[in-house]
Amino acid sequence: MDVREAQADVRSAYRGGFAGPLVSALIWFLAAAAYQWASTGLGTAILFLGGMLIFPLSALVLKVLGSPSSLPKGHPSNALAMQSAFTVPLGLLVAIALGSFQPELFFPAALIIVGAHYLTFISLYGMWLYGALAGSLVAVGAASIFLLPGLRAFSGWIGALLFLAFTAPLYLTYRASVISELTVP
């Protein structure tokens, strides 16, 4: 199997990966709301623990829609997907540590960490749109930390909106790739 075939399998199995950002948006909205209206610790916990549920919840969304929710056992892309997934909770430990000293830096740091994790999805899915998602998340996080400190209070909300905004384009890009694969002789 070559790389393009593996990428086509990933796009097909996960429908372009749209369910991940959809579930992520929900978790980020919940975390931002808890952070703002309940406590910083609760918001942090929701993002950390909820983040570990993104893949299983995304798989559930795909099953409800009647599509496969995983790659076949032994698929060459399984390892890259797992390695990429484990970077987030490990990286979020750094965001949690930073947030314990300056709570307003937790979400900006989390945006950078999660955004960087999406860079591997460019290769995994063969979709440059993941580069735009990664760049958007990292840009908001970095701008909040270094350039526009006023964004820090809203960065969790902005992250949630970015995830939501990329959901439809990811699905539509997947659909376009399916159509082009059907029309190529």
Descriptive key words:
0% strand; mainly alpha; 9 helices; 185 residues; single chain
In a few lines, what is going on in this structure?
This protein has helices at 3-14, 19-37, 40-51, 54-64, 78-101, 106-117, 119-125, 129-147, 155-183. It is mostly helical.
Summarize the topology:
Elements: H1 3-14, H2 19-37, H3 40-51, H4 54-64, H5 78-101, H6 106-117, H7 119-125, H8 129-147, H9 155-183
Helix pairs in contact: 2-3, 2-4, 2-9, 5-6, 6-8, 7-8, 8-9
Low-confidence stretches: none
Radius of gyration: 17 Å
Count all strands and give the number.
Answer: 0
Average the pLDDT over all residues and give the rounded result: 91
State the end-to-end CA separation: 19 Å
Helix content: over 70%
Q: How would a textbook summarize the main sheet?
A: none
H/E series, N to C? HHHHHHHHH
Question: What this model shows, in words?
Answer:
- With 185 residues, the protein is mainly alpha-helical.
- The chain contains 9 helices and no strands.
- The model has no long low-confidence stretch (mean pLDDT 91).
